[in-house]
Amino acid sequence: MEGVVSLAHGDGGLATRELLREVFLKYLDDPALRRLEDSARVDFPGPCLVLTTDAFVVSPLFFPGGDIGCLSVYGTVNDLCCLGADPLFLTASFVLEEGLRLADLERIVASMAQATRRVGVRLVAGDTKVVPRGMADGLYVTTSGVGHIPPGTDLRPERISPGDRILVSGTIGDHGVAVLAARHRLLEGEATLASDCGPVHRLAGAARRFAPGLKVMRDPTRGGLATVLKELAEAGRCDLLVEEEALPTDPAAAAVAELLGLDLLYLASEGKLVAVAAPEAADAILQAWRQLPEGQRASCVGEVREGSGRVLLKTALGGTRELHLVTGEPLPRIC
Amino acid sequence: MEGVVSLAHGDGGLATRELLREVFLKYLDDPALRRLEDSARVDFPGPCLVLTTDAFVVSPLFFPGGDIGCLSVYGTVNDLCCLGADPLFLTASFVLEEGLRLADLERIVASMAQATRRVGVRLVAGDTKVVPRGMADGLYVTTSGVGHIPPGTDLRPERISPGDRILVSGTIGDHGVAVLAARHRLLEGEATLASDCGPVHRLAGAARRFAPGLKVMRDPTRGGLATVLKELAEAGRCDLLVEEEALPTDPAAAAVAELLGLDLLYLASEGKLVAVAAPEAADAILQAWRQLPEGQRASCVGEVREGSGRVLLKTALGGTRELHLVTGEPLPRIC
Lengths: 335, 335
Known about the structure:
2 copies of one chain form a homodimer.
Chain A: H1 14-27, H2 31-34, E1 39-42, E2 48-56, E3 62-63, E4 66-67, H3 68-82, E5 86-97, H4 102-119, E6 122-131, E7 139-149, E8 165-168, H5 174-183, H6 201-208, E9 214-218, H7 224-236, E10 238-243, H8 251-260, E11 274-277, H9 279-290, E12 299-306, E13 311-314, E14 320-323
Parallel strand pairs in A: 5-6, 10-13
Antiparallel strand pairs in A: 1-2, 2-7, 3-4, 5-7, 8-11, 8-12, 9-11, 10-12, 13-14
Helix pairs in contact in A: 3-4, 5-8
């Protein structure tokens, strides 16, 4: 195969998908892997297990609202929760750069530990490697997770059908904006802007109570809400109609996104859920979410229509704009 | 905490252990993690599961006998096998450097796929991140694995007792020598020197048939046979007596190790097993191993004595030398 890896291959959108299909799935074509979801459901005598893995390369290592340590725990836990699983066990592998301050490493590990306690998940195995100066950027960490799906849980985009509602659990794009602002040293001292880095296990647990009306859940991380919705629309073979005015956003995040020329719809959240549910279940889920501190701004942002896999945004001005997978200018190292 | 990460922290020996105890276990103290083994056994209603994770940062990416792709599969599979588990599922996370040749990536992924087929393990979930040029060295990959321990399997260093035999399944240090030789472009075109990078699942399966006489298994990777034996001696609260003349070595590997001023006892193997077993089981295991192509040079290299956690090497010249955890000059990026 010709060519080299480009930053665009890490955008979490179209280029990433091409790389996965043309290189990875060409050789590794397990049915669970081929779904290209964040987690894999695996059949095994006894419990139904879910496995997931994520590499974290966020820059800077510390940002308002979090750090690479808690991010790596919540990111992996949240992927398990999206399949309706109870997170059970994590493993963590570290690539440390020679010269990393031990005080920084300690702060990151302490943050991971606090995150595991908050979620009630056990970190049971790990690995550390050290590479010479200039061969990494401080540290990278990969967390992998194992969860258990209770019997009767069946969350899949294929279950989406016309009339279903689209819910988001809170403001979108906060993590992406906070990391980019920290990287470019924008708004230093501006306390109102922070990553939403956190666990969705309580939100997911609350939504799960309303299965089978609950069809599917996702966390809108790299690529943002737009990318997640496009993936759901394609897999569900429906159109998703989203009302721009219904999207919960943080005013400070919106202002910084505008300053940076970026669209909140394509920026990562790290503590939010997107759910698609039948109307009655949707109302019940919204009510349940709003009773949680992390779900205060939960909203219904649109609905599912018959269609061919498009995401259509009804703008505040009354027009309609089609949303696609994130593409073009990449935002590397957001998670 | 003062100080910075040094290359020695990645040696897999004393400095690594200090880093783990002083930074990681200070905050992350799950009983499964605290054992500091390569894999974690976890209790869960239903099957007894084993989890493991490993980051691979080997340089160069391609070396005689293997590459980072198959190494990352076998390394993780072998850790599962050492606990007596059947490997079931793998996940893989990639950190790709901008500019990596797609042809190289493809070759590595194809090698991973071939390795999974050879072992019969499923790679079910993955993740890719891209970092800008100069922020990695080609690519790093973390593989995590889940295995299942059949009922009645109880392999733990605490079960070692005086009189037990120490077995190795073949020549030691081949991987470390091959990677270092490739890195320094020694002996180019010398076809006899190659990494032993491969799976130990058949060796482990053969040994497992002789439980309960089989006490414990390990793969002597980073830090080499000496480091693994020292860890077993300490955990088993016995002395291990090893006969230098009984150690199987490859003459080409021994010659290159001498050229580099290195000791094969501290160099990594990536397709070998160390087992400790009661005398009768030990004889049966040796016989079974020698019937496998990868076990032709299996040998009994020593025995367990009452003691305090020392490893004593009876040298060819009749002297006795104590072996310790690997320390001092680090050999970074060997796996």
